[in-house]
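Summary for the steering committee. One of the milestones for this cycle was to obtain a three-dimensional model of the protein with flavin-adenine dinucleotide bound, which we needed before selecting residues for the alanine scan. The sequence and ligand used are listed below.
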Amino acid sequence: MLHYFDAAIIGGGVVGSAIARELSRYELSIAVIEENPDVVCEASGRNSAVVHGGFAYDTGSLKARLCVEGNRMMDTLSSELGFRFIRCGKVLVGNTDEDLKQLERTMAQGKANGATGLELIDSAKLHELVPAVNGSFAMFSRNSGIMDPFLFTINLAENAVMNGARYFLSHKVISIARKDGRYVVHTEADDFSVKWIFNASGKGAKAISDMLGITGYRIIGSKGNYLVLDKRLGPLLPMPVYPVPSNTYMGIHVTPTVDGNVTVGPDAVNTDDFSYYGVPADKMEYLRESASTLWPHIDKKDVIRTFSGILSKWVDENGVIQDFKIEVRPDLAPCAVNLIGIESPGLTAAVPIARYAISLMAEYTSLKEKKDFNPVHESAKRFAEMDTAEREKAIKADCRYGSLVCSCEKVTEAEIIRAIHNPLGVHTMTGIKYRTRAMMGGCQSGFCQMKIEKLIEKELGIRPEDVRYLRTSSWVLSGKMREG
Ligand SMILES: Cc1cc2nc3c(=O)[nH]c(=O)nc-3n(C[C@H](O)[C@H](O)[C@H](O)COP(=O)(O)OP(=O)(O)OC[C@H]3O[C@@H](n4cnc5c(N)ncnc54)[C@H](O)[C@@H]3O)c2cc1C
């Protein structure tokens, strides 16, 4: 089938979804074409979830400018889109004279970048802020924070849909042709005839750029592994604790999540394989040992899960990491905005990246604002966060609030069912997990996974063997052990 749209965004991660949401402010028909069955399967759902202050990037770079902007607008985005963001601050902890010099350089760079709320603090102030940390002094970044990366991305996407954009999930782009002033985008499912293309495909950005005729980019993968610790440890860590950064790597840090867990990581291992997310056992031990020098509370028994993410870094011929590249190349690919090397701080900067990309488009075409654009994503309060009176009211209105499916995270049947009928039409097990937090607790799905699988079957009227875990090819069940 051939679909016609004004603009197609290839890649539905946080950047593609931010572009979709920001572009849906204008009178345009918009398609988001995404290879996976959900929008948080790659980097946007696999990161530290830190809202960076903007001090770690070269002055004058897009990374610095868009990060500072993203940090500033995060309170507004959080209240419009209904995802959790906590401006908790962050410390970069040092011990030696060399550490102090590097922190002074970092702070000067941050100030030049427009980052605010930066301060060098002594041991007493450091231990007042984070009592359980090891270190002699620190740079404190008051305006750094933590956020829910899943709901940030999902709610950007859902808000875009609410404002008229359409998502085509499980549509991998395999080739692009230019015909009669339009692009024809071929996917493994449908085809699209579009006037404008945004290449926001993360790890696929070089391949899509090549398809557009903008060749020569060199991308390397840097894999970061993480441990997730039980909520028992959350109260010991009021803000992210980082070591002193180098120019290219932030170092293994400990980070509280907005839901009360702690993550440990990432390391940084160069890789050509952008699809292998397994975490080897030796890396788990390395992370634990490394982070323990900063924060000595990491016990193996508190590790409830591991995960990893892969940064797509644009490097020059000498392997030197480059800035974000966001460009229109009318000589090679007219009417295409090409985004390359959107690594960290891509989460913090997603909306400014989107606005910048759209401003490049606006240099070539006039964009008419819609009168009825609605920036607000209405989100229902989680049962786990309701007080007793709110819970009673919710159960009276819908008795399925009275049935707990995930006891660890207190997720009810009503919430699971609402998540199954999400506006993007995501039907995977992890789709339910990222939208509700079911299966994210201490038991890591041991007690609720099959209840959720049954609810997906029932609500969607599908067979058990058609339920997918994360990707199109990841089945939850493959058949019956015994017939009859
Ligand atoms: C380990 C790690 C830690 C990080 N920590 C932070 C942090 O603390 N703070 C911060 O600000 N940033 C952080 N980042 C960076 C941030 O996560 C990324 O910059 C951001 O998620 C990039 O978003 P994206 O939409 O470009 O990429 P993605 O989320 O990868 O989305 C790209 C999408 O394109 C799709 N795609 C690819 N090829 C095709 C194709 N051919 N057809 C259709 N679809 C395709 C993919 O399936 C994918 O869904 C971190 C990243 C990593 C990996």
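Key point for the committee: The longest strand covers residues 303-315.
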